[in-house]
Give the backbone structure.
Amino acid sequence: MTGVWIAVIVASVGCYALKLAGVSLPSSILERDDVQRVATLLPVAMLAGLVAVELFDSGGSLGLDLRLLAGVAAGVVALLLRQSFLVVIVVAAAVTALLRALT
Amino acid sequence: MNEESRSAIRRDAAGIAAYAAAFGASFGAVSVASGLSVWQTMVLSLVMFSGASQFALVGVIGAGGAGLAAVPTALLLGVRNAFYGVPLTRILGRRSLTGPRRLATAHLVIDETTAMAVGREGRAAQRYAFWATGVLLFLLWNAGTLAGALGGSAIGEPETLGLDAMIPAAFLALLWPRLRTTEGRWVAAGGALVATALIPLVPAGVPVLAAAPIAVVAGLLPRRDQEAAR
């Protein structure tokens, strides 16, 4: 039991320290033009990577749940139709849930 | 920033928080089922407050891993929050990042708050999006975790409800405004491609980190077209 507590505390404090480090860079670095350009693109690249991992990672190997993909594709259609954020995520979940219930 | 865009941001933040509550509940249930106590589960949601790292930690412990063996994966998944700090520091400005306020701000630096903030036009809207999402999500994630940890098996599988499709759909929706430019599209495609290619090759957490160099390369490339246009 104590082993689990140690893991919980070490990992929690470590994760917080990582967040804190990210917002603690000195302004001399942050105000450089090249750093600002990279900073603008950083979330685009990483969040796109995150979307890819959510879609294609099945426990450390490449895999694809077509029902999940179809649901997310339906969400993209909603985006193209200029629907609101809530509509997009509800459509994605509903289509995926429906296909899972049917298959 | 007018009241209209403010309420649009609140609506989006509430949407994110709603799915966070559902995921928090499934995290609470999974965590207790993996052998953690309700208290340990709550410390994770309150202090770690980073969904991917939390699921990874309880996953390793649940699979029979010795306690400390679970730590590196959780940390690796947390490294991307450090990267998010760079654009967020610019967005939030000095006032949010001095003294004790920096400690509170840092706690809310996660995928969802970053995506919500960078998807907005204008500093005021970006800041409002960060705080609205961060505070709502923190409250509902923890409320959900507690409900799941206490309710346990009464909570259904998130997959049955299609909740897992909400994550990629939500991040796509939040990134959408940034994909209007050619550069944004190339960077997003590059990040997605690199991450996908690395899934079978490297430990969890690394594929998303490996997308970061795409942004570095694209950001440092000379941009003749745009500078000529100015």
